[in-house]
Amino acid sequence: MSFWEYLASRHEQLLIDTYQQASLVFQCMVLATAIGVAIGVLSYRRDWAATLAVTSTATVLTIPSLALIGLLIPWLGLGVPPTVTALTLYGLLPVVRNAIVGLRGVDPALVDAARGIGMSRTAALARVELPLAWPPILTGIRVATQMLMGIAAIAAYASGPGLGNEIFRGIASLGSANALNQVLAGTIGIVVLALLFDACYVLLGRLTIPRGIRG
Amino acid sequence: MAEASGATIELEQLTKRYPGSAEPAVDGVSMEIGAGETVIFVGPSGCGKSTTLKMINRLIEPTSGRIRIGGEDVTHMDPVKLRRKIGYAIQSSGLFPHMTVAENIALVPRMVGWSRARVRDRVEEMLDLVGLDPREFRGRYPRQLSGGQQQRVGVARALAADPPVLLMDEPFGAVDPITRDHLQDELIRLQHELHKTIVFVTHDFDEAIKLGDRIAVLRERSHIAQFDTPEAILTNPADDFVSGFVGAGAALKRLNLTRVRDVGVADFPTVRLDDPLQSIFDRLREATTTNELLLLDRRGRPYKWLRRGDLMRAKGSLARAGTLVGDTVTRDATLRDALEAVLTDSSGRVAVTGRRGEFTGVVDMETLLNSVHELLEEDRLAALEHRHDLEELRAPQTRAEQEGADHEPGERA
């Protein structure tokens, strides 16, 4: 069976897997962004806290993905919970680091001005600091998404959703007629998804970065 | 809309001590600032003038001491509420780059809960006030403005919610000298209209003289070396620190303090461009005292100086007769500007114009000299006495410098 014939015959299953992969990465990124920006906001003013945040999220990233999911299984069981936990943890580093860099990069004179005209600390953060730090944060989110897209394939190991299942099936039956097609279909699906996500981020940037600070 | 005029500011033993340093950054500043007064803090960098300013709106919390604004003790008030009642303008404008000009100006009025329509009207009013066309500038982003325009918007934002007090932290420090001069003139005009209480920090003594009703010369730890009117500081510096800060040429700087409208602006015989040629001829013949006429254009602005005989030589053509008017000064110009113009004019006089450039009179060398003499005569004694002290102090210093200069080439060789 040629690759195209394989795609035609299995397109339903492939579409479901692709949808699940996209949905998984999207949801994990929403979580990672919320947590990551929160960590950034809480830590960027204090040197030790910022160092701690960046170092610990960087440490998470050095754990091999297979090992991390494996370690989470006895704890959280199979399926979605360990997958989402692992992916969210992996997505944190770029978001946290860029949030800290972005927030620290805001001109102190502007923060001074914001406080000086009567903004509370929260208002200054929400209306001045975060909007100005948004472009680097968005870059962090973009990098994290690309990374998660690949790592998410490992989720199949824990019976998680996504295109990883296709790849794992192929690897498990190496030598059989459709093995190569399965691996190829899963891999290409992931690459195409990654490109689509990236295009969405470019669009999101155009829509959310104010004209006054667009490069 | 009625403009609230300024409120008094009283500082009482205001002190700032940073943890871990033995000396306080600001050491017991006490000062009373009248309502509607412009007070300038001037001093070398690092003298704590900015810290003192920031303690007034409590961007820096004082370690001890008391701040009263309009008689009300604000030392322990909610700082966010306090700051909404105090305008704040800083160096390089502090405009938020991700917001348009209108959004920047609208910030404080919105925060204090003005209605949408009122905020929109106010934004237009403020842009008009600082001399920017609302239609053109409302929707622009700060990076699309020049430095001077940004600074104007910064001032508009500081004044938007009509605060009685305005704090300005070296607001014109980052713009070029010509723009700075314009901005200073503009601030003087604004203050004539608004009568806010302004506290202004600068390290430029000339700026202080130009803008201040009173100047506080600060030395390290914000100790007040002298707090007085510009005239008094120029002619009677309290000590060597102050006179060092005043710098050379106090008499010339004194000219910056008096404006053309304060000295006699003399009348001058004029004719208008649209007068019949014959009557201009007659007037020239009649003019006995000066044998000169000033020809005004159709809008009453000075155009040409006409001497007797000029018209004859030009065969009756007004277009060719006479000499074009070069520099003019406004009634708000300083005597220094007027002197400059008179010195460069070949006949030693300069036309004074009103707001729209229309002719209002003439200032000549004689008027200027007389008024300068009067000004200086008032202060001469004090100045002389002071100069004597200063020379005694400087003599050993100069000698030391010369010796140092003698040594240098030897060392290099």
TrEMBL record, chain A:
Keywords (A to Z) from UniProt: Membrane, Transmembrane, Transmembrane helix, Transport
Domain of life: Bacteria
Transmembrane segments: 24-44, 51-76, 183-204
Gene3D superfamilies for this protein: MetI-like (1.10.3720.10)
Domain ABC transmembrane type-1 residues, every copy: 18-201
UniProt-listed SUPFAM superfamilies: MetI-like
PROSITE patterns: ABC_TM1
InterPro entries: ABC_transp_perm/SBD, MetI-like, MetI-like_sf
Membrane topology recorded in Swiss-Prot or TrEMBL: Multi-pass membrane protein
Protein name in UniProt: Osmoprotectant transport system permease protein
From TrEMBL, chain B:
SMART domains: AAA (SM00382)
Alphabetical list of InterPro entries matching this protein: AAA+_ATPase, ABC_transporter-like_ATP-bd, ABC_transporter-like_CS, CBS_dom, CBS_dom_sf, Gly-betaine_transp_ATP-bd, P-loop_NTPase
Residue ranges of the region described as Disordered: 391-413
Molecular function GO labels: ABC-type quaternary ammonium compound transporting activity; ATP binding; ATP hydrolysis activity
Record PROSITE patterns: ABC_TRANSPORTER_1, ABC_TRANSPORTER_2
Keyword Transmembrane attributed: no
Pfam family membership, one: ABC_tran
Gene Ontology CC: membrane
Signal peptide: none
Gene3D superfamilies in the record: P-loop containing nucleotide triphosphate hydrolases
Family the UniProt entry places it in: Belongs to the ABC transporter superfamily.
UniProt-recorded name of the protein: ABC-type quaternary amine transporter
Organism: Actinacidiphila glaucinigra
